[in-house]
Design brief:
The chain is α+β, with helices and mostly antiparallel strands. The chain is built from 20 helices and 26 strands. The strands form 6 sheets. Strands 1-17-18-19-15-16 form a 6-stranded antiparallel beta sheet. Helix 12 runs antiparallel to helix 15 and helix 15 packs antiparallel against helix 16. The longest helix is centred in the last third of the chain and has 61 residues.
């Protein structure tokens, strides 16, 4: 094996700097032999492939030229077609699919082409029409043939000679005027009849034999006959071409020389059917050639009878269907690749989970390249030497890699992990760099079998090699330049996603540290605040003058405010860390509302709390102190943000199986934008200057209610006040018809 060289020097081994990955996945479509293009919802071309360019005869002006701008359009009969009546126009205007639509175009060089058009609308994720894509098939040759056929038909019909056609069974299929004049039979009297009606009996046998021989010898299919023991009795040129045996090599031999050992039972099944007079029709199987190759065939086997009607053998027609099967496989593979590429592209762009992104990338690229197994290795530098860390694996058990130890920066791996190069090797066993590293002098005994090898680096936007995608296959020559392009493209997208994931992790770590700081600071503030409050409470009980009493009262009030703020910070940090605990108990929600309203009567003398509650118990199973905290937050806000009013309203309703609490004020109200952000932490509206608070009350209220499987919301009109409400599920077996005792 020669050293790795640039891709331009050959399709075998390659060494390609990872600089210009193929944009998206257009390469697969660009090289398609079928003309393909897309347009936006206004009909302007947004994309076209090479086949479409050849069909147009030039490069259209993307995003500035209508899809039909390169041509003059006509209906198949030659009538001019307005562009707005064209199939693509109907698709982008009405969102309908158009199939098998025939049109005629006049190209820039004044030639005409007949096209078969398929047009399908494109929709975005919201099912809005965004454009269309179309496939164009040039059927000009087919139309020319139809014209030729019409001309020939006219010539045949006007000829004085007898011109007759028949099928392979000798049945007359056409009969012209010349034949009618010469033989005396009308067309109606001959169509479908055997040609033997025109042949004298003494020439009939000779004619028939000559016709059959000509058919058999000129057929591209293998036509073989055999007796009931399976011995070959005839062998045509088609059989020689398909199987490689000459007639001399096969006559008298068993038909089993063509049958693989694992399919010998098929011959018994065929002979059994022939002996019963049954035909085996279009049976798809595999047969063996002279050089041992296996080829797919479609075979039809019919009984052969003697002049007494006895079955004496069988005739077999075998058609090579390799091209059809290969074409079907390529189409299926192409469609599968497009589905995988579309899926992986969407997954990479939407996912910030490193493990998830890398596993999807590894699985998809392993499948797309046809590798037996693939892996992603992080470029991990250790103190005891440079090495890699296995991160994701596809197609093999993880133990298969881990028991071998991690690869190192050897001559084979360094180009990928150090030099940012793609390495593709047809047969790794022949590469001069292979097997030169101590203590291994080749492939370890337990190593997964590898002959074909492909390695593609994953490089961040800073130029750092994040890691490498490695693929292996036990057979040589599996990976191609196309596989390189696909993996390079996906690796480039994966690198962007990994950069984003890394940035996300950094932001998350900063957020976690901030939450840790808030929690720690809040705990540290609690101790001196509690001490200060205790001292002030002791001073408040002693005799003092009016000025001292005023200062102590104001100091206690400010300490209480600060204490509440610290409590809010502590609760927020607990919620963010998922550590807020809830102790559930069944209690009467209406009774809790009465207690809170009564407390506010003495603690907030600026407003009256008007309570509207029915005289029935409303039982819920919740954390009573937390629900009380949520109600106090809402009620305090209603008073705080309606300084010019004297009343706030609080009530309780039952809706379905939920208790609904509302608190309404006559304050400044909220704009739509304020309502949208109101329940986020640290948010404070711009018109709240001069009103104390951290913007945590409503955030904590929402967390408390939602952790009880309830909902919280607001209805407000700017300048007319606001109504906050929340719901809680009722305790089961609640009977609201029992009055409070």
């Amino acid at each position: 094996m020669k050293p790795i060289v640039p891709a331009s020097s050959g399709p075998g081994n390659a060494k390609v700097p990872l600089q210009q990955p193929v944009p998206d996945y257009k390469k697969l479509v660009l090289e398609s032999p079928v003309a393909f293009y897309t347009c936006d919802k206004n009909g302007y071309i947004t994309f076209f492939n090479e086949a479409a360019r050849k069909l147009w005869g030039r490069d259209p002006d993307v995003k500035r030229e209508l899809w039909s701008g390169a041509w003059k359009l006509f209906y198949p009969d030659g009538t001019p077609m307005p562009p707005e009546k064209s199939p693509m126009a109907l698709t982008v205007q009405n969102g309908i699919t158009v199939e098998n639509q025939s049109i005629m175009i006049q190209c820039p060089d004044s030639t005409f082409k007949n096209l078969l058009l398929f047009s399908k609308p494109l929709f975005n994720e919201n099912q809005n029409l965004t454009g269309a894509h179309s496939i164009l098939i040039d059927i000009s040759g087919q139309v020319v043939n139809e014209i030729k056929q019409t001309t020939l038909s006219a010539i045949v019909e006007s000829s004085d000679d007898a011109i007759i056609s028949k099928d392979l069974r000798g049945k007359i299929t056409s009969w012209n005027k010349g034949a009618e004049m010469i033989f005396g039979f009308t067309e109606k009297e001959t169509l479908g009849k055997s040609i033997t009606m025109l042949i004298p009996m003494e020439r009939l046998k000779e004619e028939k034999q000559a016709m059959l021989s000509a058919i058999v010898n000129s057929s591209e299919d293998a036509i073989i006959s055999k007796d009931l023991t399976g011995k070959i009795t005839s062998w045509n040129k088609g059989a020689e071409i398909i199987f490689g045996f000459t007639e001399k090599e096969t006559l008298g031999k068993s038909i089993t020389i063509l049958i693989p050992k694992d399919r010998l039972k098929e011959e018994k099944h065929i002979i059994d059917n022939i002996k019963k007079g049954k035909k085996v029709d279009h049976f798809e199987t595999v047969r063996k050639t002279k050089d041992g190759r296996l080829i797919p065939l479609s075979i039809t086997v019919s009984p052969v009878k003697d002049f007494l009607g006895n079955i004496v053998g069988a005739s077999k027609v075998a058609r090579d269907i390799s091209a059809r099967i290969q074409a079907e496989a390529e189409i299926n593979q192409h469609n599968s690749n497009l589905e995988i590429l579309n899926s992986i592209g969407k997954s990479i762009s939407e996912n910030l989970d490193v493990q998830g992104v890398l596993q999807r990338v590894t699985d998809a690229t392993t499948k797309l390249t046809g590798a037996s197994y693939g892996a992603f290795f992080y470029n991990d530098y250790q103190e005891n030497g440079e090495s890699f860390k296995l991160y994701t694996l596809s197609g093999a058990a993880r133990e298969s890699f881990e028991k071998l130890g991690m690869p190192r920066h050897t001559a084979l791996f360094a180009p990928t992990f150090a030099d940012k190069e793609v390495v593709r090797i047809d047969d790794i066993l022949l590469d001069p760099r292979y097997g030169k590293n101590f203590p291994q002098a080749g492939m370890p005994a337990a190593h997964l079998p590898v002959r074909s090898y492909l390695a593609v680096p994953v490089v961040s936007k800073t130029g750092e090699v994040i890691g490498g995608l490695l693929f292996g296959h036990p057979e040589p020559g599996i990976f191609t330049a196309s596989h390189e392009d696909i993996v390079i493209n996906i690796a480039a997208q994966a690198a962007v996603s990994l950069d984003n994931s890394k940035l996300f992790e950094q932001v998350k770590n900063l957020s976690d540290r901030k939450d840790e700081f808030i929690a720690l600071a809040s705990h540290e503030l609690k101790t001196p605040l509690t001490t200060i409050k205790g001292y002030l409470q002791v001073l408040a009980k002693k005799e003092k003058d009016s000025l001292s009493e005023l200062f102590i009262s104001k100091s206690l009030n400010q300490v209480n405010k600060l204490n509440n703020l610290v409590d809010d910070l502590l609760n927020m940090s607990r919620i963010e860390a998922g550590k807020m605990e809830f102790n559930l108990e069944v209690f009467d929600l209406s009774e809790l509302l009465r207690e809170i309203a009564e407390t506010f009567l003495y603690s907030h003398t600026s407003h009256s709390v008007l309570l509207k509650i029915d005289d029935y118990p409303v039982m819920v199973n919740c954390d009573r102190p937390r629900i009380e905290q949520a109600i106090i937050n809402l009620l305090s806000n209603a008073i705080k943000y309606s300084p010019g009013a004297e009343k706030v309203y609080m009530g309780l309703n039952i809706q379905d199986r939920f208790a609904s609490v509302y608190i309404r004020d006559e304050g400044t109200g909220l704009t739509r934008e304020q309502q949208r952000q109101l329940f986020t932490r640290f948010y404070r509206a711009e018109n709240t200057k001069g009103i104390s608070g951290l913007g945590l009350g409503l955030y904590l209220t929402r967390q408390i209610i939602e952790n009880h499987n309830g909902e919280v919301g607001v209805k407000s009109k700017y300048g007319e006040g606001s109504e906050f409400f929340f719901t809680l599920p009722l305790e089961e077996n609640l009977n609201t018809s029992t009055p409070r005792k």
